[in-house]
Please model this.
Amino acid sequence: MLDENCPIEEVRELFGNDRFATEACGCRVLEASRGHAVCAFDIAPIHLNAMGNVMGGAIFTLADFALAIACNIGEDPTVAVNNTIEYLNSTKGSMLIATCDADKSGRNLGFYTVEVKDDLDTPVAKMTATCFRRN
Model:
């Protein structure tokens, strides 16, 4: 989808079109390369559930955003076909950071792990994903 040597500004411009993640949730791209992405958002009242914790859907959105970037740089267009997320701890800090890395990137399938931590290094969630590449 994107050339593996594209500048991060190009990645930010393309994935800025993911309006739910970028506009509604405030996700931003910190790092992006083939098979790797780091994304974050500052925790705001919009992210909180009724108990005052970051809502699982907001955490998933950040993880999914990082996944989309990591699996589409230097690859054919890729979509997730299966995601499993485990919520490990409530957030203690003021920011969430998702780091996605390819476990195996094949011709048609890719396998990825996304770790979500807060800015105090508290593990918040772990997502694994299987992705399909449209050749």
Notes: The longest strand covers residues 95-105. The helical segments are 8-15, 19-24, 56-72. The chain has three helices and six strands.
